Amino acid sequence: MKDFFDLQKPFYRPLWIRVLIVGFCLGWALMELAQGAPFWTILFGAVGLYAAHQFFIAFDPKEPDPPADEDRP
């Protein structure tokens, strides 16, 4: 379950996936705002803003370094 919110995985490396996820969440928040549902607006808005921060500010698109084996000579 700890990997559920890990947005630094290689799956999210393509830009179009990151833009699609953020756009969907923020767009859904706007739709909920237009419908007058404040709880869902805040929920999807928060998820969209968190995803935007993780994907465009804190995201490192480089390949992760392989783990070092300490047993190798």
Describe the structure.
There is one protein chain. With 73 residues, the chain is mainly alpha-helical. It has a domain of 36 residues. Helix 1 runs antiparallel to helix 2. The longest helix has 21 residues. The protein is elongated and about 55 Å long. The termini are far apart. The mean pLDDT is 84. This is DUF3329 domain-containing protein. Keywords: Membrane, Transmembrane, Transmembrane helix.
Quick overview:
This protein is mainly alpha-helical and 73 residues long. It has helices at residues 15-35, 38-57. Helix 1 packs antiparallel against helix 2 (38-57).
Task: Name a few traits of the molecule.
single chain, about 70 residues, mainly alpha, about 0% strand
Fold blueprint:
Elements: H1 15-35, H2 38-57
Helix pairs in contact: 1-2
Shape: elongated
**Helix-strand string:** HH
The total count of strands amounts to 0
| Oligomeric composition of the shown chains | single chain
The number of distinct helices, counting runs of at least 4 residues, comes to: 2
Give the integer mean of the pLDDT values.
84
> What composes the largest sheet?
none
What value does the Rg take, in angstroms?
17 Å
* Portion of residues within helices: 55-70%
Q: Give the N-terminus to C-terminus distance in angstroms.
A: 35 Å
Q: Spans with pLDDT under 50 lasting ≥5 residues?
A: none
**Proportion in β-strands:** under 5%
Structural class: mainly alpha
